[in-house]
Amino acid sequence: MKTINNLMLKVTYLLIIGIVVVIMWEVIGRSFLHAPTSWYLEVASLLGACSATLAAAYVLQEEAHLGVDFIIDRLPAKWRDAMLSITSIFGLIITLVIVIMLTKEIGWSLKQHRVTDNAILPISPFQIASTLGLVLLAVQFGIRARKHFVLWRKTSPQSN
Fold first, then answer.
1. Whole-number pLDDT of residue 73
2. Could you say which of 56, 91, 140, 147 has the lowest number of CB atoms within 10 Å?
3. In degrees rounded to 5, what are phi and psi of residue 66?
4. Is there a contact between 26 and 35 (Cβ–Cβ < 8 Å)?
5. Distance (Å, whole) CA 16 – CA 113
6. Three-state secondary structure call for residue 28
7. 84 Cβ contact partners less than 8 Å away, ≥ 6 residues apart
8. DSSP category for residue 159
9. What is residue 14's predicted lDDT score, i.e. its pLDDT?
10. Reduced to 3 states, what is the DSSP secondary structure of residue 75?
């Protein structure tokens, strides 16, 4: 899983470079060429959404996300592991619900040949990339839940 997450991080870097290029194009076009585009914000937003979802599993894997650490860190190890296991299970469930909803939306987008309003790009590739990122996030939540459940079991009194 680490290899896949690292690969998705590299893809995210490319998407962020794409966002920078699109915005630079707009700035140059608007400021110097007096030719603004109608599509830059749409494309930058879609690339941003894809980069956020594709990098999410990596961020969770590295525990580099924002959290309520000041509360969790004050708990005994046993309770911290229990809490992290429970919240990871909730994260897994919520992420899977979103994946199911997005999968239905992808099917509808493919049937309707949906495109973006201004750039006239098909929407489904962006939806598929975001769904892939969320599937990887769900898997990472499962790995995290198992890890902390095992740690919790090791520190609980009944395991002695």
1. 79
2. 147
3. -75, 140
4. no
5. 26
6. helix
7. 72, 144, 145, 148
8. G
9. 97
10. coil
Distances (CA, A) of 37 to 2, 17, 34: 39, 19, 10
Q: pLDDT digits over 38-60, tens only?
A: 999 999 999 999 999 999 999 99
Which residues of the chain have a pLDDT value below 70? 68, 156-160
Tell me what pLDDT residue 76 has. Answer: 84
The answer for residues whose C-beta is within 8 angstroms of residue 106's C-beta and 6 or more apart is 124, 127, 128, 131
pLDDT computed for residue 68 by the predictor: 67
Number of domain units in the chain: 1
The structure tokens listed for 88 are 């990871």
Print the domain residue range for 140: 2-159
Which DSSP category does 32 fall into? T
At residue 63, what is the residue type?
E
pLDDT at 41: 93
100 within 8 A of 19, measured Cβ to Cβ: no
Q: How many CB atoms lie within 10 A of CB 107?
A: 12
Contact 56, 134 (CB under 8 A): yes
The three-state (H, E, C) secondary structure of 104-158, written as one string: HHHHHHHHHCCECCCCCCECHHHHHHHHHHHHHHHHHHHHHHHHHHHHHHHHCHH
Per-residue pLDDT at 74: 83
